[in-house]
Amino acid sequence: MSAPARKLERGRVGEAVRRADGIPKTTGEFAYASDLQAAGMLWGHTVRSPHAHARVGEIDISEAVTMPGVHAVLTHADVPGTKLYGLEYADQPVLAFDRVRYYGEPVALVAAEHPEQARRAAEKVRVEYEPLEPVVDMERALEQDELHPDRPTHEPDHYRDDPRANVVRSILIRHGDPDTEGDVVVTGEYELGIQDQAFLGPESGLAVPDGDGGVDIYVATQWLHVDRAQVAPCLDLPPEQVRIHLAGVGGAFGGREDLSMQIHGALLALHTNRPVKIVYTREESFVGHVHRHPARIRMEHRANRDGKLVCVHARVLLDGGAYASSSTAVVTNASSFACGPYAVANALVDATVVYTNNPPCGAMRGFGAVQVCFAHEAQMDKLAAALELDPVELRLRNALAPGDVMPNGQKVTGSLPVADVIRRCAELTVPEPEPLPRDSLRLPGGSGNVTRGEGVKRGVGFALGFKNLCYSHGFDDYCAARVRLFAGADGALAAEVHCAAAEVGQGVVGVITQVARTELELDDVTLAPGTTSTVDSAGSASASRMTWMVSGAVAEACRAARGELGARGGTLAPGEEIDVEKVYRHPQTWPLDPETGQVTGERAHVAFICSAMRAVVEVDTDLGLTRAVWIGTAQDVGRAVNPQAVLGQIEGGTAQGLGLALMEEIQTRDGLITNASFTDYLIPTTLDMPPVDAVLVEEPEPDAPYGAKGVGEPPTVVATAAVAAALRDATGRDLTRVPVRPDDLIGL
Amino acid sequence: MDVLTPRTLDEALRLRAETADAWPIQGGTDVMVELNFDRARPRVVLNLNEVAELRGFARENGTLRLGAGLTYTECRRELGETLPALAEAARTVGSPQIQNRGTIGGNLGTASPAGDALPPLLVEEAEVELAGPAGRRTLPLEEFLVGPKQNALAEDELIVAVHVRPSGARQTFMKVGPRNAMVIAVASLALAVDRERGEIRAAYGSAGPVPRLVRAPLDEADGFPDRVAEAASPIDDVRGTAAYRRHALRVLTARALERCAA
To answer: What value of ipTM does the predicted structure carry?
Structure first.
């Protein structure tokens, strides 16, 4: 890593600070949500649909309630409040009624003394299903029967009115003159399978009734307050009677934005007046959260002889699965970034997300940008070949920069060093091929011992990607933080910070304490547990927004506390305290015009991040097996609050992008998941993940506190495209679909 | 669920005969997955881990007797000279933790078409020793494996050992999977070039209902890759396609022949 070295002080902004949770997690001492216990606790279990699409008739619980240890069996009839919930659009039943729309959809709940008793009782819940033909093809869905009685497109104030069946949302962007012709034209069709977040800690939580009709929910989640906003109406409780507390999160990556066990656990707890714990099994986890949208993408790039892009056409179709989740935002992102971080004066972008009976899709690291990056980068390589230009040079000639106007009409402002990340990445030294013979662990196929070098060809790929930071399109995106400043018995000042930001493994607790120590010029800073009961919302741990947002909120609260301290003469007497809460908002954004796809104000997105990556692979071209050899990357980070944590995010994000390129795919047959286990849903091991040589490009973002940008998503956005490019280089094949299968690499 | 933990083989055999529905468990790397996934709820588990007679391996008059409780780690560390293909296969199994737990006996008991120890044992013409109330019997491994996850073990018998007379032939094991470690075989192959007997023996895994042995005289090496590929009867499943498996076997056989020819 070649970030500028800084003097190590006391855990302040800019220092490489070790994670507080690093050792407990490594040694197995960290308490995850699945480790929660309470006296008198019952275990909940979810009865799930075995069908991808069926009409639901009678639900007979008479036998289940008589099973040993059972305290409650609940159905949709037991949901006291609203029967539907959803992150952006409430279309998902708490418990199915009338129909089930995906495999694994919750239909009933059981609480019992022992998890085994709950499972056995769940088998005795008799549900009358009338199977219906599942809608499983995203293209055909546009012409098949409607899966939902209502959908977002029926709200024309917010969404484009699209009469085609099963459209959740469509975006049509016309930029400049889309009929503009170029000297050279390249077209391509691309496809991405369903990727899973594959977090290691399955969905888990504990709901505890408070004896006064309210409930405390301890859960692994990404956004405490939005959970409460969805849970309370379904329980028919005022929000203050539902308190959500963050339990240890074993990875999230977007998959914990939607609710899992929250309402279910609370229903069972309130019904039995006992604490109820729910822990999903691994198999259940695969149906228990949303996935990355699979996509079919068609692109046409037109350029002049000098290598300048003149027009891009992109048609993006996303399969949203059974419920809306965050599809309405994912498709907008896909449309925003479809042309890549390139300046292009004319474009036609047509992005649509549909309902089907496939597994529901929603947020996952990269959020719509991953899919289009895979396509636009393949196109840029094709274009470079058609123009006989170096692919890096072609990207430099078209690099987006502040002052340029994006297809959605937004003029880029602030920091966006696209050309810089291209150059800095291209300058990295690519390692020489290792000589043979080698241990098979350092060859394609790894421990499988399949080659001593036979059939092995090397390939190098380059890719560029970008994405927005924070929530966009007019969303009221804010973050609260509260600081208590007090004097200990010896008169020494100490601070306690309250912030509901979810630590999902990304390291936000470190950022919060670094900011507080910096602003308070104090070492004795502790962070209180994340909860809805002591502080307002921090917003979601997603969209690479947490560093920016908590930095803003914590800094403001600390400055206010220091101001108050100054007013009181600079010291506090033992027992005296200052307690302030501040809410931070980033600069305003505006929605798109539903008809023109053009931004209705200054900006649609508050800011952007970009990343360039070079990947080196070796492919066994007879067997179609791959070894990723080396990754070099230069990433725009604004300013690194904690360079060590940034590097961790870059390595982890790269692994997730590489996983999508090489192996990660949820497979389905007629809507049913056929590989719901870590035996058959493969994620990269250390043998699959190469060393990463990362350059942090620090150009402070003027609108962000400390100039710091989020860093979690760009490596994932760009890695899939970079690895795919390297595979194409090694094999000479088009490879238009990821994950790339061994069959594709050998042309079977 | 009851767990019975015998300390001797006699006690284990008695418990096995008395408790017809007991599931024998050795390392547990297959059985525990079944339990964790809630696919099975045996009434009784017969824990064989404390039976000393099942552990380790011994040499007897030029024959190796591999205890049913021999782990992959032991195979990898201690049998590299005598049964090199088996040692290579052991290295491909799961993670080091799995290699520490998983056993040869367990692999035979599960009798999966993907069992990594099976092809190397087939090319070495191993025999399986079974014990029951009627005494001991031995069966060629080929006869022991009767179908996908089906073997010739009777309800009152236990797998005691595997007997191999090391051929000394040059041999190797290869396993194809879309990830570079910790993967179930999409296709696997053990191959031995036995100059003493003038034959080539290969056994494939994950390319038919059971791992199967294919033989040819040394002078038919040229057509052998095709012969192995044609002998297989692979299917399409979530891990790979039949066409890919057949193709992979052809490539693996050709490479293995070259490796073992030198």
So the answer is: 0.96
